[in-house]
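Hi V.,

Quick status before I head out on leave. The structure for the redesign project is tokenized and pasted below; the design run finished overnight.
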């Protein structure tokens, strides 16, 4: 097989370092467990001296099958249970995980991975090339109807295992973002025994090779993980992790301040300054590659008219939204993907011009008081102020705008029914760090995740060309043109580039925060 000039090979030292990078910015620290003699005692005694980490999240998980989950909370928890062939460091650069090295053919269609040999699944079965093959044979089977088939499975022709330590992927077409695409949660490797004997139960009984394994899940209340003492990357420095479902902002803050939680997600704006000034806590604020937006159902009249969609965009004062509602912690979106993702092109924010918007509605024959339904997932607390702002703006434009806040499961069900909404509030996050998956999912006319039902054959052509090209400049050129066309067609109301604020006890360290909104907890510990 002819090899491309760039061949990735990493030593075991680099693997260990990359997996345990400290992302909190607290400097190098040693583990100081309460029982200082733990290191001289048995493994069980040492584990008993470790503390459990408690994290308060805004919502509950849907399930723990990485090949069939789409919600951010499930993906976050799955990230701790499962490993992937390759993964990301805190700069979203590709580093090894279950694969030690890899190489690709000149045409970019054949990828060969050399695998680690010291890994077992949490059920005791060995990790090897056959296990990888079983996983991807499942993912590439359209009859399984897995949610991640469209994102990853549909591009793989076949997977072979020439030996226990080598696995070969044959792609249907070149993919410039192939490594990025298998580095995300959907590329998680499940125990082959679990797939073969308990496939229907994976979502509730996950078995991976990761540092934590599921102990208990009380739906709507908490998910409890326990440390995997046999983890190939080293036993975790906490005994387990409990994820609490706490939808109320104030309640999460109270839990942090009363030591009921060690970490809370999405610190409310009203509490950021106070917690930042308290030495007992740290607030990690960082930009992400998430764009908060309102999608428009282009199947519904009058929103099937591009004039109406442009009118909606012109009616939103994004500068006021960013500066007053979010106090400048977010930025006005200048594209449909984040500037932190490959493929971004600055196509410019839509202007704010209410009079021009009213003129377009008049030209389109839209009557005063036309009803408009906006749906929002209850757990996306950071988007609610924007959703209410947009609702108010559209009411002032003359629409009878209704905002429906739905629990996550109901929201996801509603998206599958185009008759249940006119507009939907959502975040576009390039979890792969590359625009390929996001553009395919959101704007390709054949995508099941294209909830705007947007259809432009030229945009389809450009997205596919950008995905298949191996040259980065060629890919970027295709995405530039696609994003310009999408702006003209206005299937979305892009609002802001998001930032997140995670609050945690100053006793906690070793979290790797990724721009993709995931946290890697492999190195987490208490000071």
């Amino acid at each position: 097989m002819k090899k491309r000039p760039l061949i990735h090979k990493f030593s075991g030292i680099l693997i260990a370092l990359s997996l345990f990078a400290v992302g909190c910015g607290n400097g190098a620290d040693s583990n100081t467990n309460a029982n200082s003699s733990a290191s001289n005692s048995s493994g069980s005694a040492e584990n008993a001296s470790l503390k459990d980490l408690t994290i308060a999240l805004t919502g509950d998980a849907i399930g723990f099958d990485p090949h069939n989950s789409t919600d951010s909370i499930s993906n976050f928890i799955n990230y701790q249970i499962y490993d992937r062939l390759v993964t990301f460091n805190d700069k979203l650069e590709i580093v090894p995980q279950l694969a030690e090295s890899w190489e690709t053919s000149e045409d970019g269609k054949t990828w060969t991975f050399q695998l680690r040999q010291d890994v077992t699944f949490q059920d005791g079965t060995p990790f090897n090339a056959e296990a990888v093959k079983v996983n991807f044979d499942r993912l590439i089977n359209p009859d399984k109807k897995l949610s991640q088939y469209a994102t990853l499975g549909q591009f793989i022709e076949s997977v072979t295992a020439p030996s226990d330590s080598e696995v070969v992927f044959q792609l249907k077409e070149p993919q410039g973002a192939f490594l990025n695409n298998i580095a995300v949660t959907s590329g998680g490797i499940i125990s082959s025994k679990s797939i073969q004997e308990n496939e229907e139960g994976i979502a509730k009984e996950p078995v991976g090779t990761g540092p934590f394994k599921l102990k208990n899940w009380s739906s709507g209340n908490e998910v409890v993980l326990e440390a995997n003492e046999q983890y190939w990357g080293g036993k975790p420095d906490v005994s387990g992790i409990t994820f609490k479902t706490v939808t109320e902002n104030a309640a999460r803050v109270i839990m942090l301040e009363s030591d009921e939680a060690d970490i809370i997600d999405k610190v409310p704006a009203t509490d950021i300054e106070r917690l930042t000034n308290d030495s007992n806590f740290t607030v990690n604020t960082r930009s992400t590659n998430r764009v908060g937006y309102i999608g428009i159902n282009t199947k519904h009249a009058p929103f099937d008219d591009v004039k109406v969609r442009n009118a909606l965009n012109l009616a939103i004062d994004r500068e006021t939204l960013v500066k007053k509602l979010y106090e400048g912690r977010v930025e006005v979106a200048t594209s449909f993907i984040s500037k932190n993702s490959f493929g971004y092109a600055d196509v410019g924010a839509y202007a704010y011009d209410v009079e021009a918007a009213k003129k377009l509605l008049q030209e389109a024959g839209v009557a005063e008081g036309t009803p408009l339904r906006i749906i929002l997932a209850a757990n996306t607390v950071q988007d609610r102020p924007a959703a209410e702002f947009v609702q108010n703006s559209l009411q002032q434009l003359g629409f009878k705008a209704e905002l429906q806040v739905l629990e996550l499961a109901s929201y996801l069900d509603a998206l599958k029914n185009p008759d249940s909404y006119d507009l939907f509030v959502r975040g576009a996050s390039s979890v792969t760090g590359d625009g390929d998956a996001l553009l395919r999912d959101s704007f390709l006319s054949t995508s099941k995740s294209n909830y705007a039902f947007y259809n432009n054959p030229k945009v389809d052509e450009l997205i596919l060309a950008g995905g298949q090209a191996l040259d980065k400049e060629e890919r970027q050129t295709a995405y530039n043109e696609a994003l310009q066309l999408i702006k003209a067609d206005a299937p979305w109301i892009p609002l802001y580039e998001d930032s997140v604020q995670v609050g945690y006890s100053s006793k906690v360290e070793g979290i790797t925060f990724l721009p993709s909104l995931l946290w890697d907890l492999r190195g987490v510990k208490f000071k």
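Above is the designed sequence. The longest strand covers residues 281-296.

G. will cover questions while I'm gone.

Best,
W.
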